[in-house]
């Protein structure tokens, strides 16, 4: 299925970004390799210069035109301005975990604010990236959802968050010595599948072999969604073996309608069926994201119901549950579960054979929940 194929079910208006906004400047990362060659040809340079630009951006991680000495000096500034424009400006970078967790607040060209997080572990480096400025899904416990949707991000704006993280690693700004970004999770601001075309473009740039892209493994990329069923099905047919993470947060429609309003369009049964179909089609295990909220969705009986809902599609290991201790926003009624309730929830899921983990809560002291930093500066 092509990237432009329309979903089979009408999507709600909340998916549409406000009209009248200027588009981000065209960037090399927005373009396929052929489109880059065409662009440099239009600028009066031979097509092979496109590959040189790609090497500087994706492989050498260069952001200073003066270092691109293999480009003709007379045209260097012009071609760099045309294909490598500045997309975002860092406003603040906060650190935690002795500098191995770095959260950056970015200002985009039109003043919109987004966040990315770099997390360095002993065996990997993960970048959590935003795909929209704001979010239209309106989940009441989420800081980003309370601000509404400002606009979709471009492919290049998404990719630039990862490249910026890669630069900071290469330049020794993160403790532990030089390293590469090994994993990318689309779990920052926004609903990735509501910005499907740009997100898929970013996945392609991340996985394209160097120097056309960053050369990452698709298996190191996780795309999160609150449950846009037509887009999940479209992603399954696309054939890129990324990990799908479904933000379920409740196993029953009554509660999920409140926590994840899109559930009024696509029920728990429909959403889990789409996730199961993704696993069956791609042979990739799906992650079920479940934010644990005290007295809301953390009852033991809901753990049993969640297991039953997931096992109804078979017990062949298609799914993994990732429990998330809620990082509450200031003044919110939504708070993290009691540790004893969390442990019982895990016990009940595992007793029914559901692999379950509790997410590492990095960055809590630096407004780690997506949207908190942007909300405080917006």
From TrEMBL:
Radical SAM core domain location is 121-364
Primary location group:
cytoplasm
Q: Which GO terms describe its cellular component?
A: cytoplasm
Q: Which reaction does it catalyse?
A: adenosine(2503) in 23S rRNA + 2 reduced [2Fe-2S]-[ferredoxin] + 2 S-adenosyl-L-methionine = 2-methyladenosine(2503) in 23S rRNA + 5'-deoxyadenosine + L-methionine + 2 oxidized [2Fe-2S]-[ferredoxin] + S-adenosyl-L-homocysteine; adenosine(37) in tRNA + 2 reduced [2Fe-2S]-[ferredoxin] + 2 S-adenosyl-L-methionine = 2-methyladenosine(37) in tRNA + 5'-deoxyadenosine + L-methionine + 2 oxidized [2Fe-2S]-[ferredoxin] + S-adenosyl-L-homocysteine
One term of GO molecular function: metal ion binding
Cofactor annotation comment: Binds 1 [4Fe-4S] cluster. The cluster is coordinated with 3 cysteines and an exchangeable S-adenosyl-L-methionine.
Q: What is one GO biological process annotated to this record? A: rRNA base methylation
Query: Which residues constitute the catalytic centre?
Result: 115 (proton acceptor), 370 (s-methylcysteine intermediate)
Renumbered to this chain, region (Disordered) spans: 1-27
Alphabetical list of Pfam families matching this protein: Radical_SAM
* Record: residues binding S-adenosyl-L-methionine: 190-191, 224, 247-249, 327
Q: Supply the InterPro entries for this chain.
A: Aldolase_TIM (IPR013785), Elp3/MiaA/NifB-like_rSAM (IPR006638), Methyltransferase_A (IPR040072), RNA_MTrfase_RlmN (IPR027492), rRNA_lsu_MTrfase_RlmN/Cfr (IPR004383), rSAM (IPR007197), rSAM_sf (IPR058240)
Q: Give the top-level enzyme category.
A: transferase
* Gene3D superfamilies per record: 1.10.150.530, Aldolase class I (3.20.20.70)
Q: Where does [4Fe-4S] cluster bind?
A: 135, 139, 142
Q: What is its EC number?
A: 2.1.1.192
Localization (cell): Cytoplasm
Is 4Fe-4S one of the keywords UniProt gives this record?
Answer: yes
Cofactor entry? [4Fe-4S] cluster
Annotated keywords: 4Fe-4S, Cytoplasm, Disulfide bond, Iron, Iron-sulfur, Metal-binding, Methyltransferase, rRNA processing, S-adenosyl-L-methionine, Transferase, tRNA processing
Q: Which PANTHER family match?
A: 23S RRNA METHYLTRANSFERASE (PTHR30544), RADICAL SAM CORE DOMAIN-CONTAINING PROTEIN (PTHR30544:SF5)
Q: What does this protein do?
A: Specifically methylates position 2 of adenine 2503 in 23S rRNA and position 2 of adenine 37 in tRNAs.
State the family it belongs to: Belongs to the radical SAM superfamily. RlmN family.
Extra facts: Reaction proceeds by a ping-pong mechanism involving intermediate methylation of a conserved cysteine residue.
Please identify the protein, giving its name as recorded: Probable dual-specificity RNA methyltransferase RlmN
Q: Please tell me the species this chain comes from.
A: Nocardioides euryhalodurans
